[in-house]
Specification:
The structure is a single chain. This protein is mainly α. The protein has a single domain (15-77), classed as Arc Repressor Mutant, subunit A (Orthogonal Bundle), CATH 1.10.10. The chain is 64% helix and 0% strand. The chain has four helices and no strands. The chain has helices at 15-26, 31-37, 43-50, 55-77. The longest helix is centred in the last third of the chain and has 23 residues, at 55-77.
């Protein structure tokens, strides 16, 4: 995942908090309370973590489809 190192608006560091944020949210804690305990008080910094998504999980199906199509074309050419 590509988490921005700093907040786009205020420049505070946010990437160093992402690992703990993600693990605690997956464990069942409320995202707002986790951010409060991590010291992320500004809404601009909070949105950086709220809006981060696992982009690789969205890209993998397209990559696999391209590889499959490539193999199909190669087998047709042979």
């Amino acid at each position: 995942m590509l988490v921005p190192v700093r907040c786009f608006t205020c420049g505070n560091l946010v990437a160093d908090k992402f690992g703990e944020y993600k693990s605690r949210v997956e464990a069942g804690e409320a995202p707002g309370k986790v951010l409060d305990s991590l010291g992320m008080e500004r809404y601009c910094c909070r949105r950086m973590l709220f809006t981060s998504i696992e982009t690789i999980q969205q890209i993998i199906p397209f990559y696999e489809a391209v590889q499959k199509r490539y193999q199909e074309v190669q087998s047709e050419l042979e």
